[in-house]
Design a protein that fits this description.
homohexamer, 264 residues, alpha/beta, Rossmann fold, seven-stranded parallel sheet, 8 helices, globular, NAD(P)-bd_dom_sf (chains A, B, C, D, E, F), plasmid (chains A, B, C, D, E, F), NAD(P)-dependent oxidoreductase (chains A, B, C, D, E, F)
Chain lengths: 264, 264, 264, 264, 264, 264
C-alpha cells in the first residue's frame, strides 16, 4: 500500500501495533485527537477529532487502507459514546466512501456479546448481547459497516477484540487474550486477501480455553500462533481466582457486566 | 393496566392502533412531539420531545406499559436519526429504568434485515443486514433493548414491523403486510404473557408468501389471523409488477435499498 | 388387533381412554394393581403388580399391542419410583420380548424436560432436563425403550404427555393441554402405521401457545385437532395468573420444579 | 406469456395438466415424440425427439416459458435413460440458452431421494440418495440446471414430483400424492413470481403425512390446497397395507428401491 | 482441596488414577466396597457399600470434591445394575446435597451412545442410544445429575469414558482410547475451573480417528495430549482386524452391542 | 490386497500416485486407454476403453480394490463427457457389481461445487453447484455411487480432489492444494478401514486457508499432513495476485467458472 491510516494511533493499542505494521505501506499515517509520537521512519501524524466530518475526511484522503482503533474504548457517559463511536464512525465511513473505499479493519469488541456465559462457544452469527453502552456502540458500528458493504461494497474486517495486551494477566484472559503479534498478522492477512467482504472475526489468539470459533474464516489463510496457556502458571500464582458467582467467572464480557450505566 | 403509554401516537400507525388498544388500560397516554387528537374517552395527550431526557422521564412516569412507536420511521439525514432513534431511545430506556421497568413494545423494523434477498426465509437470529441509516438505528435499538434486559431485566418485545397499513398495496406487501388487527392482538398477547423476556418478533400477518418465521414464538400464544393473499387479485390488477432486477423484487427491504445516504 | 393391553387402566387416564380405544382390538385387557371396573363389552381385567416379573409376563402374554400407562405418575419417594417405573418398566420390556415384541405406546412425560424455560421451543432431540425423580424415571424409560429397539427391534412410541385432562384449567395448560381425543387418535395412528420405529412424540394438542415441535413426525399422518385456546377466556376469568417469578410461568414442567426430593 | 411450451405433452401428466395451464399463455405448444391430440383452442403440436439438438432448438424457439415433462419417467435400460434424460436435457438447456432463457419448470422426481427412510423429514438440501438409474438421471438434471443458473442466469423450478395422479391409491401415496390442481397452481406461481432463481421444490400436496418440507419456499406465495387424508378410508379399505419389511413401508421411493438395474 | 473422595478406588481405573491425583488435595479418601491398598502418604481408605445411604453419607462427609468411579462398570444382571448404579448414584447425590454440594466427576460411559455407527461424529447433545443395561444405568445417572444441577446447583462433569487403559489394544480403541494422563488432567481442569456447570464431556484422548467432538468445551482450557495413533502399527500387527459385519467395526459401543440382556 | 486396479494410470495423477501405492497390493494393474509405462516390479498394464462394457469388465475382473482416476478430467465437449464420465462410470460400476464389489476410490472433483464463493466453508452435505459440464458429470458420478451403495452395498470413497500437484502454484491453490503424499495416505486409510460406506471426502491437504471441512471423517483415522502455506512466499513472489473481480479470487472452482459450454 501507499499509505495506511491508523486511527487512535496514540492509544496503547495503536502504539503497540505501529512497529508491527510499518512494512505494510510506504507511509503510515497516524491519526489521533491526541498527539502521537512519530517514531518510525515512514510515519506521519495527523490531528483529527472524529466528531468533525471535515477533519475525518482530510485524514482519510489519500489512504488506501485504514486500521480504525479510534473512538471510545471503555465504558463512558452516553454522550461521549455517541460522539466518538456513533457519529465518529459515520464520519469515517462517509470519508471512506468519498475516497475510493479503502479497506477498513474495524476494532469491534467482545463487549458486543459480553452477556453470554463463559460456558457458551460462539460463532460469528450469535445475536448481539452487549454488556454496556460501549458494547452497544460497537453493535451499531458493525451494523453500519454491514450497510456500507451491502450498499456500496465497502470491505471491512469486523474484529471483535478480546484482550489485546502484552501478556494475559488474569483467569478470564486465559480465554480472551489476543497477542499483538496475532493481531498484526491478522491485519496483514486481511489486507493481503484478494477478497475480504465484511466478516466478523474473533480477535483472539490460539488459547486452549478460547470461547470463540473462527472456523468460518479458513479462507483467509490466517492462523493465530500464540496461546495464553503458556502464562497459566504465572496467573494462577499471581492473580486471585474469581469465585463462581463473580462476573469474571460467569460472563464472557467479565467485569463490564457489572458496570452501571455511566453518568457524569 | 392502569396507564398505557403510546409514543408517536399522532403518527399514522399510532392513530390506527389507538382504538384497538383502548381496552388494555384504564388510561391511554398519547405521547408525541406533535399534538395528538384525543378522541377516546380514556385518552390523555402529553407533549414530548424524545431528545429531552426530562420530558421523556415525565411522560413515562406513572405508566405500567409502553408501546414505543415514536422517533424517525423513514430514511432521514443522520443527525435526525441520531436524535430521534438513538438518543431518543436511550432516554426512553433510562426513563423506564427510573420508573419500575414497565414492559415495552418496541417498534423495530424489517429494515434491520432489508438486504437479505426475498428468496431467503429468516428466523429471529439472522445477523443484521440493515438497508439504510434508519435500519441501522433500529439495530442500535434492539441492541440497547437487549442490554437493558440482560443488565436490569427490562422486558421488551422487539417487533420488526413489515408493512403496517390498512391493506397491502403492492407485490412486496403480499409478503410483508402486517394488519392493524394482528399488530393489536400481538401487543395484547405481549402484555398478557406472564413472562416476556426480550424476543425478536416478526411483525407480519399470516401471509401465504411471508418470508419470516415466528415459530420460535409459540409460547406466546399469539397467532396472526390476516392474510395478504386475499388482496392478490386486486394488487395484480392495479400495481405494476416489478421486474426481477428491481429492488422491489430482489430485497426484503424493497426500495429502501435504493436510498442514498441522506443528506440535507 | 386381537388383544390390546392397557396398563394402569384403573387410573384417571386409563378410564378416560378406554372407551376411545375400544374399537382398536377384539379384546381390551385392562391391567392394573387396583381393580378396574370392566365396563366395555370387550374388556377383561387382569391384576398385575409391575414389580413382579411373572405377573407382568402373564399380563403381556397373548397381547399384540400395549398402551403402557402404569407405574408412578407423580413425584413420590425414590424407592416407589424405582419399583414402579424402573423395575416395572424393565419387567414390561422383558415380557414384551418374550412374547413377540408387541408394539408399545409408552406414557413418558413432559417432566423429562421440565427445567427448560417456557420461552424455549423444543424438538424431540433436546437433551433431558428432568424436574424430579419421576421425570428421571421417565428418562430411564425412554433410554431403555431405545435400547430394546436398537437391540431387538422392539417398536414403541415414546409419548411425552403434557397435561392430559378433560379441559385445560390454568395458564400453563394453554400450552401443555393434551385432549383425550387427540391422545386416542395418536394411539390409533401409531398402531396403524406400517412402520413405527421408536420416536419421541410430544403428547400435546394443537394449542396456539404450544412449546413443542412435532414436525419431525409428519410421516405418521397424525394431526392433533383440539386447541386449548378455546378455553382461554374461561381460564383468564377463573384461574389466578402466575407472576413471572413463579415456576408456573417460568418452567415447562411448572410446579414440579418446586418439588423437593420426596422422602417419607 | 405469448407461447408456453409443454414437453412430454402427450403423456399422462401432460394431458392432465394442459387444460389447467391453458390460460397461462396465448399459445400452448405441445412438444412430444408421440403425437399429441390438440384439444384446446390455443394449442399447437410440434413433433420433437429430445435426442436431436436441432429438433429441440426448433421446438424451444419462440417460447417464453417451458414446462419440461418430457423424457423417460420410469426405470429403463441405461442407454434409454442417457438418451432421454441426460442428452435430452442438455439439448433442452442449450436451446433455452440460445433463445433468451425462457423460465423452465423441470419435472424432477422424488426418486432422487428415494432411499431415505419414510421416517425422515427432508428439506431441499438433503444430499441425493437416488433409488435407480432414472433417479440418477434426475440428479444429473438438477445439477445441470444449477450450472446453467449459476453460469447464465437460467431460472428454473426443480419440482421433485411425488405421485401426481387423479387421486391417491395406496398407503405410500397418503404421503406422496400431488394433485393435478396443486401442480398447476405451483406452475402458475413459478411463472408469476418476479424472481424465481433455481429452487428445489417438493411437488406434493398438503398431505397430513407428508415427508417433505417446503417451508424454505414461503416467498413464492404458493400453498398446496389438497390433502390425501381425504382418501384414507378408501385406501385402507381397498389397498393392501404393506408389512413393515416391504419397501413400500420403508423407503420414500417405495418399490423403485426394489428395481434391479434394468437391462434389455 | 482439603479432602478428595475417589469412589471405586480399589478398581483398575481407581488404582491407575490415584497417584496422578495425589496432589489435588491434602487428603485422598479412597472409598470402595473392597479393601483398597493405601499406598500414598495422604491416602485414607473408607469401606462403603453404595446401596447403603448411611454409609455413603459417612463417606462423603468432609470431602470437598468427588471422583465417582464406583458401581458396576460392565454388563451385569439388572438387579445388580439397579443396586450399584441407580440406587447407589441416588445415595451419592443425596449425600453430596447434605454435605455442601462438593463438585462431582461422574464416570459416565460411551455405552450411553454405543448404538451409533462408527461413521457418525457425535457432539454432547446427541440423544442417548445405550447398548445395554449398564449403558441405560449411565443414562439414568446423567439425567439425575442434570436434575440436581437444575434444582440445587450441584455441579458435575459427566465424563463419557471411552477406553481408559494403559495403551490402546485393538482397532476400535484407536478411536476410543483415553489415556490415564488425559483423564487426570481433565479431572484437574474440572476442579480448577471457577465455574463447571454440568457438561457432558467425551472422555477420550486426542486420537486421529476420534468419533467424538469436545469443541463445545473450549472454555474449560483442557486439551487431551495423547494420541492412540502412536500404537497403530503395533495394533495392526498384533490384533485381528474386525470384518465389516462385526460389531467391533460397526458400532461405537463395539462388542457391548452383542451382549444379551444379562440374567444369572 | 491381491490386485489393485488404477484406472487412468497413464495420466499425470496416475503416474504420480503409482509408486506411492505400490505396497498396497501384490499386483498393481494399470488400466488406461493410452499405454502406461510399466515401471514398478509388480505392475501390469491393461488397455481399456471405458466406453466398452466388455473391456471394463475384463479390466475389473480379479481386482479387489479400484482407484478410479480414468475418464475426462477437464472441460470438454458434452459427448466426450458423456462417453468418458457417464457411460464409462456406469460400465465401471456394473463391472464392480459383477466381480464382488471391490472397494472403489472415486476421483470426484471440487468442480462439483465450484460456484460457491471462496468465503464459504463447506461440509460434505452442501448441495452441488458445479462449474461446468465436467463438474456436472462428477455430480452424476457421486449420485450413481450412492445408488450402488444403497442398493448393493458397493463401498466407495468419493474424493473431491482440489488441486493435486507436486506443489501449489497460485493463490487459489494455497486453499485447494492436495499433495500426492496426502492423497496416497488417504487411499491407504480408505482401504485399511474395516468399514468405509460411501462418504464424500474433501481431497485437500492441511492448508491454513482450506475452505473445506473434513471433520465428519474423523472415524477414518486419516489426517492430511502437508500445508500449502509453506509455499506462500514463493507464490506471492512468482504468481500474479488475482484482483477481487476475477474468478480466481471469487469462486472455489476458480477459472473453471469462466469456461464456456464447450463445443468443437
Amino acid at each position: 500500500m501507499k499509505r495506511l491510516l491508523i486511527t487512535g494511533a496514540a492509544g496503547a493499542l495503536g502504539r503497540a501495533l505501529r512497529p508491527r505494521l510499518a512494512l505494510l505501506a510506504e507511509t503510515i499515517r497516524l491519526g489521533d485527537i491526541a498527539p502521537a509520537d512519530v517514531t518510525g521512519p515512514n510515519e506521519e501524524w495527523m490531528h483529527c477529532d472524529l466528531a468533525e466530518p471535515w477533519a475525518v475526511d482530510a485524514m482519510v484522503a489519500g489512504c488506501d487502507g485504514i486500521v480504525h482503533l479510534g473512538g471510545i474504548s471503555v465504558e463512558r457517559p452516553f454522550d461521549e459514546v455517541v460522539t466518538g463511536n456513533i457519529v465518529g464512525l459515520y464520519n469515517l465511513y462517509e470519508a471512506a466512501r468519498a475516497h475510493g473505499l479503502p479497506r477498513i479493519i474495524f476494532a469491534s469488541s467482545n463487549h458486543t456479546i459480553g452477556y453470554y456465559p463463559q460456558t457458551d462457544r460462539l460463532g460469528p452469527d450469535a445475536p448481539f448481547r452487549p454488556d454496556g453502552l460501549y458494547g452497544v456502540s460497537k453493535c451499531f458500528g458493525e451494523s453500519l459497516a454491514r450497510l456500507y458493504f451491502d450498499k456500496f461494497g465497502q470491505e471491512a474486517a469486523l474484529v471483535r477484540i478480546g484482550s489485546c495486551t502484552t501478556e494475559p494477566m488474569d483467569h478470564r484472559m486465559l480465554s480472551t487474550w489476543f497477542s499483538h503479534g496475532d493481531f498484526a498478522s491478522l491485519i496483514e492477512a486481511a489486507f493481503r486477501s484478494p477478497v475480504l467482504g465484511c466478516p466478523v472475526i474473533w480477535g483472539v489468539s490460539a488459547n486452549d480455553s478460547c470461547w470463540w470459533d473462527n472456523s468460518h474464516l479458513t479462507w483467509l489463510g490466517w492462523r493465530a500462533k500464540d496461546n495464553a496457556e503458556a502464562w497459566r502458571e504465572k496467573i494462577e500464582t499471581n492473580a486471585a481466582k474469581p469465585t463462581p458467582d463473580k462476573s469474571m467467572a460467569r460472563f464472557q464480557g467479565g467485569a463490564f457486566t457489572d458496570n452501571p450505566i455511566f453518568k457524569e
